Amino acid sequence: MTSPTMAKGAAQPRLSLSNVIRQPLLGPLAALIVAVIIFSSISDSFLNPQNMSLILQQSVVIGILAVGQTLIILTAGIDLSIGSVAILGTIVMAKTAGANGPLVAIIATFAICLLAGAINGGLVTLLRLPPFIVTLGAFTAIYAATQLLAGSKTYQVPQGPLTFLGTSFRIGGFSTTYGVVAMLIVYAIVWYALSQTAGGKHIYAVGGNPIAARLVGIKTNRTLFTVYLLTGLIAAVAAWAALGRIPNADPNAYQNANLETITAVVIGGTSLFGGRGSVIGTLIGTLIVGVLRNGLTQAGVDNLYQNVATGILVIVAVAIDQIARRRSS
User: What are the start-end ranges of the E strands in the chain?
Assistant: First the structure.
């Protein structure tokens, strides 16, 4: 006869590698803690409040764009154009501000980024084209259009509303910017939408099994189109934050943004096959990339080796996701 104590003990989950792998947030969080411990032991200045603030500020643009990338990947798609849309937004904002003022510039930027998201979403839903092909074509077209619009020149923007998100403030001895606050607000809003609303659950359902989602009455095309539209909106916020970070619209800036957003999403535990993941994991993934680059820079590691380390992280994260899916099935 099994005693109550033994029965209670048998019901407790075992702390094993397979259980850790099945927890989407546990692995990224452990990796972030380990990275912080390693780099703080290498550099005495790594844990300084100024350096922590710098990591957050450097993560703002990629962190915001990674939220949009998370939404797309949750639907089993991928967006290779989100970085180029944001850079187009910075050029539109800088050029329009010179002739029509900052308010019109911000409105024009949001309009052009929403239009890009709507075109991507329309091609994916109406013509049923693969998201990879659609956004790859969009990336090429938007990059060329940005170069033509900018005339291969950079545009400096004046201090004011366009650079507001780069304004710093202090909380005790810790200094940060409104761009960091904007990034956290974007994460909070999207987290709430995904976890607490029917629309968020529809996104997971469409990414997990689109046929089953359609059979239970979910309008899959409307859900997909809304996701791409929201991604355009998020790219506009990232464009605004980019000018706050560096008040200079450069058509060649953030050339690795697409890869870095995918890296943050995958490292954060969101499945590339859709239907599983969260923006909290993406935030942790963004911080892992930021900590890794900052720590390696302080250690004097060349930027090319940093890219190698980031690429290895992506491969490891995808491999863990594959193992988790096989064990779940």
Answer: 155-156, 168-171, 174-177, 248-249
